[in-house]
Amino acid sequence: MANFSKSQVPQFSVEVYQNEFLPEGGREVNAIVTVTSTGGGTTGGIPLADAAPAYGAGQGPGAAVVLMVDCSGSMDYPPTKMRNARDATAAAIDTLREGTRFAVVAGTHVAKDVYPGNGGLAVADARTKAQAKEALRKLSAGGGTAIGTWLRLADRLLNSADVSIRHGILLTDGRNEHESAEDLRAALDSCAGRFTCDARGVGTDWEVKEVTGIAAALLGTADIVADPSGLAADFTVMMENAMGKEVADVALRLWTPVGVEIRFVKQVAPTVADLTARRTEANARAGDYPTGSWGDESRDYHVCVLVPEAGIGQEMLAARVSLILPDPSGAGTPQTLSQGLVRAVWTDDMVASTSINPQVAHYTGQAELAQVIQQGLDARKSGDFDGATAKLGRAVQLASASGNQDTAKLLSKVVDVVDAATGTVRLKAKVAEADEMTLETRSTKTVRVKK
């Protein structure tokens, strides 16, 4: 288990950005909540005076990781794909921090614990890493794909260890054809909240919505590695990020007074993820939204609530946003790491009440960008080329206006841009499958507003 000095104790801060002024009769209140976690007490100038440590010095988290490698028959076409997958998994194992618990699962239509192979987890050191890489060399392709069984085995392995950080890395190259969609959904439901999972699709024969759905359900990342030769670099970065996690199971708690309705709660940076339906009730006036594991990082959330109508000059607390760390035993009182307030003030100053907060405007556009890309690609696949042109044109316009250059570059491989400012585009006659899948997979990635 890791030991942290006092200066290294992970701490959290909450900052709220909003226009708190409403016109007479106005009800909708929007706020961007920036959550920052740091292990060293500073975050490049963001004040942490009001932040609380996530746990005491010397109470490091302890981590466990399970790597799930697709070994279905399609991984042999071409044979280099399986070799690249073995090499990538070996690179990830080399990146494991000493003392981390870990296991390797070979996934086909069944799941097999190939290392350590005893129904438990190994402890990372030079000897066990070498043994795991030797086990990897024996992996071969054959069989079908039933990802739900891989996740259930990973869950059993991860929860055999008394650690607070539990993480999965899943690689697949094909569609989940050997179990029903309901079986996969049931597996995801049973694993949600028990471990986080990053999912990667290699090549172009897998289903984007399947892989992104796994990552979304388990609060991880999703991406495409179109060229299998890029797997080792990707797996190394993924494992480095996993090793950087210090606090697990942090919840965003939203308390609202009587009469306030919650419209939505979304993560909007670094990716768009709607958390609204994932609320669990904390008490009569508050609910918790899962955020997963944290290292040294910052994320933005968009909170939208409807308040009761009020007269000019009145003001109210519209919501209180807190970061909550549950007691690991489940018996104690959850720890409040930090909190911020969302306010509503009614005014007859038209300039004040009609001004849109820059952060709110930016992320509203980023959420729309993710949505219109999905809609445009779906329309293109269904043969609705006019609809696809309109939606992807709007996406180009939004990406250009917000400075989301990565998304703009991906869009330019699917459409010919005539005028980015007006969203005037033409669909390309031929689009490489990898380019279309990359745009779809990365459509939810956002750029942060310049504050």
Report how far apart the termini are: 38 Å
Number of helical regions? 11
* Percentage of residues in strands: 25-35%
Kindly state the number of beta strands. 21
Task: Tell me about the largest β-sheet.
Answer: 7 strands, mixed
Low-confidence stretches: 1-8, 40-52, 55-60
User: Which oligomerization state do the chains in this entry correspond to?
Assistant: single chain
Short description:
The protein has 451 residues and is an alpha+beta fold. It is 30% helix and 31% strand.
List the helices and strands and how they pair.
Blueprint: E1 11-17, E2 21-22, E3 28-38, E4 52-53, E5 63-70, H1 80-95, E6 101-107, E7 111-115, E8 122-123, H2 126-137, H3 147-158, E9 165-172, H4 181-191, E10 196-202, H5 208-217, E11 222-225, H6 231-243, E12 247-255, E13 261-269, E14 273-274, E15 280-283, E16 286-294, E17 297-306, E18 315-325, E19 335-346, H7 350-354, H8 358-381, H9 385-402, H10 405-411, E20 415-419, E21 424-427, H11 433-441
Parallel strand pairs: 2-19, 5-6, 5-9, 9-10, 10-11
Antiparallel strand pairs: 1-3, 1-4, 3-17, 6-7, 6-8, 12-16, 12-18, 13-14, 13-17, 15-16, 18-19, 20-21
Helix pairs in contact: 1-2, 1-6, 3-4, 8-9, 9-10
Comma- or semicolon-separated keywords:
451 residues; alpha+beta; seven-stranded mixed β-sheet; six-stranded antiparallel β-sheet; globular; disordered N terminus
Would you mind describing this structure in some detail?
Helices cover 30% and strands 31% of the residues. The protein has 451 residues and is an alpha+beta fold. The strands form four sheets. Strands 5, 6, 7, 8, 9, 10 and 11 form a seven-stranded mixed β-sheet that branches. Helix 1 runs antiparallel to helix 2, helix 8 (358-381) runs antiparallel to helix 9 and helix 9 (385-402) packs antiparallel against helix 10 (405-411). Residues 1-8, 40-52 and 55-60 have low confidence and may be disordered.
